[in-house]
Each structure stands twice: as C-alpha cells, then as structure tokens.
Amino acid sequence: MVNIKPSPRPVICFRPIRPSDLGILEKIHTDLFPIRYESEFFQNVVNGRDIVSWAAVDRNQPDGQSDVLIGFVTARIVLAKESEVGDMLSYDSLKSDQTLVYILTLGVVEAYRNLGIASSLIREVIKYASTVPTCRAVYLHVISYNNPAIHLYNKMSFRCVRRLQGFYLINGQHYDSYLFVYYVNGGRSPCSPLEIATAVLRCMKNAFKAMSARFWRNEDRKLKWPKSRESRCLVSTSQSRRNLTAECTRCECV
C-alpha cells in the first residue's frame, strides 16, 4: 500500500504522467480498485499510447517527493458512433469524425482526499475535451456502490443516463454500473420524454391557433355573405319595379 503523508500546506500541481511514474501508478491502482489492470494498460498510460493522462503532485512534499504521484486520471478518445453512449448523444451521424472522451481511471491516495484534487483532475479532462473540435462529451462508468464518486459526478453536473446491469464482474460476483455523461462543444442528449411532450403541446397549441383563426375568418365571410345577397336583391327589385313601371307606362300610352 502506498504510504504518503500529506505536507502541512499542500501545493497541488498537475502534469502528464511519465514513464518514471510506472511503479507508483501500478501501486495506487492496486490499492484503490478491485479490478486488476494488465501491464499493457500501464505501459500505454505512461508512454501516452492512445491514452491521455494527468498526474497530481504535491510540490510542497519534502525529501525529493515533490514529484511523486498523489492522484491521477486516465482517458481515451473514442469515436462516438462506436461508443456505448452513441444513442444517448444527439449528433450528426453523417459526420463520422465525431468523438467522445472516455475516462478510464481516476484516483487520489487516501491521505490527500477531500482537498478537491479529484474534482480538479476531472476539470482537466473536461478542459481537454473542450479543445478537441470533434468531441461532444466526456463519459465514464461508476460501480453502483461507489456513493462518493456518484456524489462527485452529480455535483460536477455530469448526467446519469443509464444503469447497466451486471457490468462489472469482481471476484465472481456481478455489480451494476452507472453511466455518466458531461456534454461539451454543443453536444447534447436526444430529446427527453419531457422535451418531446413539450414539443407536442407546442405543436398542438399552434395548430389550435391556426384552426381558430381559420374558423373566425369563415365566420366573417358568412356574416358578410347575407349582406351581399340582400344588396343584390334590392337592386334586382328596384330594377324590376322600374321595368314594371315602364311597361305600365307604355300600356297607358297605348
């Protein structure tokens, strides 16, 4: 187990993980996670092979330990169309280059917890994802019983979009996982049921307004129509009277 005592006044800084961090990185992962990672994973992390990473160090540590890892986050860029959250993301499917950033692991040694280091590491990932023009979201999995992590992601405005049954297999036992997403660069989720209902109500309201306007226009026409017929009748009657008078006059003259 990694035994690092915090300095009286920690000065936390962040830097990329380097090959010299390999040993301590493996030890912290072993201490923090019930899942065992392959050696290849750690080699990819420290050498930056398709994985981006950030290390947290305490510059105020004495005895040459000012560059020793006390926290870390690792992540990978994946294509949106090939990810498990593709259906939870509203994006242009015609653009095949749309990407996501998937957080692989995040951890802080016990002595340095509750100092905001995990939140700062996550913000580093979000900041990085925001600089990738094709990236639309940051996402990750959290085992269902990890309440502190769930609270952290909720506090940081991640959205829990799904619960995956039996996602983890640890010591022969299955555990559920929550899927969290943080949207960046205009990324967003597909319409929620509430948004769909709101859109339907808006359409119904607009349709009702259009029908009402059409109804009242028809009523106005109906009201004007009898007046028009009445005027025609009056003209016709007067003309008939004139014709009748003329005929009578002619008869009298005869």
Automatic annotation (TrEMBL):
Belongs to the acetyltransferase family. NAA60 subfamily. It holds the Pfam family Acetyltransf_1. Keywords: Acyltransferase, Chromatin regulator, Chromosome partition, Transferase. The keyword Acyltransferase applies. Gene3D superfamilies: 3.40.630.30. PANTHER family: N-ALPHA-ACETYLTRANSFERASE 60. It catalyses: N-terminal L-methionyl-[transmembrane protein] + acetyl-CoA = N-terminal N(alpha)-acetyl-L-methionyl-[transmembrane protein] + CoA + H(+); L-lysyl-[protein] + acetyl-CoA = N(6)-acetyl-L-lysyl-[protein] + CoA + H(+). InterPro entries: Acyl_CoA_acyltransferase, GNAT_dom, NAA60-like. Its EC number is 2.3.1.259, 2.3.1.48. This is N-alpha-acetyltransferase 60. PROSITE patterns: GNAT (PS51186). Residues 12-185 form the N-acetyltransferase domain. GO terms for molecular function: histone acetyltransferase activity; protein N-terminal-methionine acetyltransferase activity. The keyword Hydrolase does not apply. It comes from Parasponia andersonii (Sponia andersonii). It is an enzyme of class 2 (transferase). One of its GO terms (biological process) is chromosome segregation. One of its GO terms (cellular component) is Golgi membrane.
